[in-house]
């Protein structure tokens, strides 16, 4: 029915590209809907049933009225448009997504409107607007076919022994045949075998569709409704329908940016407008409807999910609702754009696309009466499910909230209330009211759309316009050009005013203006409805309010982004010299300084922003920004940058750039006025529809039936049309420009290739191919998914490694090395999401919301069953970690199941998705993720049972590469389990290891231990003396380790252990080598070196010590071979250094004064760096104060320099002895009155120093002399007193007796330099761990 020529060259600027008619093809007759059959086949396969049993075939079990048949594109005009080729299968499928079904008189036969869009591979979109109504079926072939099908249906029921009347739609007394086609259906006897005669009692659907390059939804809806009205009216339309179709296809242009356009449909004119270049892009779908369907709260949550690129599934019975919500939500993303699969209406035959393991935004039509719980979705771990009809939304777990969400919702609510809409949403049809009356009110109502005679006045008006308007509503091309020039130039306006004042008249311009005014007056008197100045109809008024509401809501969203990303440009990294080198190295380059950007943001914004800047839409936005150096700016980016620039010029932002206070949008009224002004003054009027050169007698008017249009007159447009000429010249200009650019710059194909690779996986899958749905195409699509998942895994693991190792390289000199906890958490969350998507791909039958956890549970059940059969308890743990026997710790079993049991015992986690994520975090922290997943997938029988052949997990080569990428994460240390689950109870094992060679292996005293970490401490735990753990070392000497197993709330990374005993019994003195503590869940083992005595009268007389821990490297060969790892944390001062300080001979080489000064500078520097990190990421300050190379250790070396350590009667002298003697001297001098003569501040300082030293001495704790000195330094640093105490010690006469002449403490210059260094710590509030200051009272 279509013709063979192509449309004319003006199409890029044409309002519509195609006019399409879909319905029943009476020539080929009724065909079962193959797509519906394919859908059944796919569904059967998805549910694990035999697909062949549900193979495509006749289904006589169903009444023919309940079945769907194949619809056809009956005609489309023109045949083809060069830059928008006609995709017949896609258009047919989207015009009638459910196929074609008949309606009876009992059914609702109201015309339906819906829209759709097709996204091409390059991301460009084509919109379709569809008006479906029901025509009476008069074709004898169709009636006969329906009768035959009905008889087969009856026969099927008879053979099954069931009464057809009970299952059919009619009553038992009816013949239950084709009641949509024959009037005898409801009267005939059920036993009658005669076939009913055809009549016009029912209808078959006919869809009229306009395919357009831009979403002018309201205009298309009104045009199609008027076409339908012309068919159902009693009187024929003023002109043949071909005239209107020809007009809209070839003579109506797209309005230029910032202009409005009026064109004429069958009965009334239609006005559409297009935003200016500096305004938000065109969006004609009613946002008010989306807000009413979901409510503000739900819509903002949905918006957040879309921003974070989760999987979004919209669910509604109404196609237009799906489209309104999908288009509404993507419109609000400005200046960002959705980069993944986008199918607002998912035809039934494409349901397998829900299996896609990539982010998507899809709309699924719900069948009437179906329950949400019956909807089998392949994956829900990262799914946002939106039930549009019931106003409900199901959100994924743990997703961050939008910054300033309550204030944002309040602002949106205010906008809705101004337009008379409820922020809670409702199902009622939307009528927009204005709280303040609009500038032009109207009392007229839009003319009736139901069938009936259109008013004679309207008809005569249209005819009179055609007859009277000599120029057919348009100016000559030259006149138009002159007028446009005049209207667009204020300079010319001023010149003309000047000319008038001097008495010169510009006749030609006046004549043109008069002509335009006359034409407008003509239109107004003729009742043109939408023209400027005339009273607008209620429908026009409603459209205006809808457009104003749209733009105001969008401005609120755009304003949020402009505030949040006002300074984004400062963080864009412009590293490439030219476009080609940038495109070539795109994947290796960092384009945006994420860490600096986040460190600059207000704290409440961070959870959301850290996730958002990892998305594809943000990456593409930054890519566009970088490419704008070499190319024309992407339109949305240009508008966004313009707004930020404008805000800067007007200095809207306060100097406090980073305040998290909410800023409301300030241009709401301005944006609404721009729309109203365009509608008040129509810029362009298209040529009126007119008679065409048609054959007489064809297309005869018959009420209720859409005529067969004459194809030859609709095949191409007029060649003399000014729009086509203007377009053709502009097209030629654009072509020249494009060719010029191609010669100058990069070859476009190469660029496109790079960009395709550089951007996301989902891009080439943005829109599934609708034309070919053979299993081969489905397999190819799945293969693309598999490749995409592997690539995403490679990029994610690489990013995690680069981020982590990059930070570590910077911080190797000190402290724990970690990237910002927030950023690390974001990357790990996205890894969890990726693993869930991989495990959801190609599932046979979905069980539970988490596919990964479901697989683990199956594995656990099989392994436990197997271990019962073999009766060997260890069979489910084939991999074990080697024993830490040398360190006194028993073997820690390592297995997938063991880690699962740890997670299952955590009562804090309530959902499967949460358990899967916790298990991933635990495995990652234990550096076992790759190994565990390999173990899980080694059970091939289970994998085959759970997954289809095309699933990612059954592609062996890709699976191996995937596990290898995960293995690379073992190169760095993560604490992603310990730092996230802070409230869980964790079992710890502590082992105290004595030095057998030099002391008793056993002690008669009662030892105790207190373990502390970043999150708290275990409290003092007494260890019963009878807890002995016997192990054997290589020489078979039986050392006795004291072991304690205790359970307490997660301590985080362990920092210190307090170890002591009560000094009771004969063997009270105890030389301890170290304490080992292991987290029994994560397997992290910490060593706390001691190498000192505990006991009275030995070493420094200490009965307790505070030990600083270091994380141990795994000991097994296999784990040692895992590659590089993060540097260890700082630990307690080592045994050799302790001995060199306290021994007489100083066996180890003593540090020089330069080394000591460097050590002090380094330790102070580390403390300052510690305070410059974000609070949550600082780690333990105790390590920096008391650990190796800490402040205490470096000051100890300073005080030991030149210290006279001669033993008197075999007794060691300690620094604390010097401190005590100094205190003694000061107190005696104070009593003698010597100090009263000194300056007052010095006297006060003396008093403070003595008070602190005495309080430490009088403390009930037996911490030994070195422990006392450590405590004095820590308290002095905390209370900012160290620089004041040093001069006192230097002035004290005791110094000459106890220090050599060359000692650093006796060198004034060195001491003054030290004071200066220590004073830099005064800017920071140092807080001490309770393990250090416990029992100390000032």
UniProtKB/TrEMBL annotation:
Classification from the root reads: Eukaryota, Metazoa, Chordata, Craniata, Vertebrata
Q: Which SMART domains match?
A: dDENN, DENN, RUN, uDENN
**Which keywords does the record carry?**
Guanine-nucleotide releasing factor, Membrane, Repeat
Residue segments, region Disordered? 153-200, 427-464, 515-542, 717-742, 1114-1137
**Keyword set includes Disulfide bond:** no
Where, subcellularly, is it found?
Membrane
Q: What is the name of the protein in this document?
A: DENN domain-containing protein 5B
The residues covered by the PLAT domain are 986-1108
Provide the species name. Answer: Alosa alosa (allis shad)
Which residue intervals are annotated with compositional bias (Low complexity) in the record?
165-200, 428-456, 1124-1137
Domain named UDENN: which ranges?
Answer: 53-632
